[in-house]
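FYI - complex with iron/sulfur cluster, inputs then prediction.
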Amino acid sequence: MKIAELFYSLQGEGLLLGVPSFFIRTSGCNLRCSWCDTPYASWNPEGEEMTLDAILAEMKRYPARHAVVTGGEPMIAPQIAELTNRLRDVGMHITIETAGTAFKPVACDLMSISPKLSNSTPEGTFAAQHERLRIQRDVLEQLMAQYNYQLKFVIAQAGDVDEARALARDLQAPSERVILMPEGTDPMVVRERSSWLAEICKAENFRFSPRLHLDLYGNRRGA
Ligand code: SF4
């Protein structure tokens, strides 16, 4: 499968924040978010074909017991089911980070679903496709029904919370599974957005997620 990067780091977002994890970033995405922080796995998919054996061999170099399969959109990657089964066979805890637009029967302990709000829609050629695909309600319901999940929304402005809240209610997601995270790759911007988003989370009983990797490493690949 085409892999953009493999690296060992701390999970920077969501329920498993801070857990040492081996990251497998597949290359290729069916969406084109305007603010995508991994364009090398979506807008301009880079990487090389790797066998599952080679991926697992690289993982064995590290002491992680958690694997995070991310992208791009890992749920459209050929061999995603086989990869997750191999990870399970060696006893890894598996998180899959997905936008929730495609379903495959994967092995997964935490389905980290990040439905894309209207703030993600780009201008230009990809706008219509992105807008048509970004919310697939039947897929979201299927993922939520079949896996332990978190619903993680990327928030750029306070108005985005209305959209996140409406979708979470529509999907009947309990508030403790809903995570709001500030959008941004500039630590200063993320800090400013965090200050008002934290207050919204307190008022509405949603979980707040920082972007730990930005604080620790800045906006760079492999971290
Ligand atoms: S779904 Fe994720 S990887 Fe794909 S364009 Fe959006 S942010 Fe980037």
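The two ends are 21 Å apart (CA to CA). The pocket of iron/sulfur cluster is lined by residues 29, 31-33, 36, 38, 41-42, 71-73, 99, 116 (CB under 6 Å).
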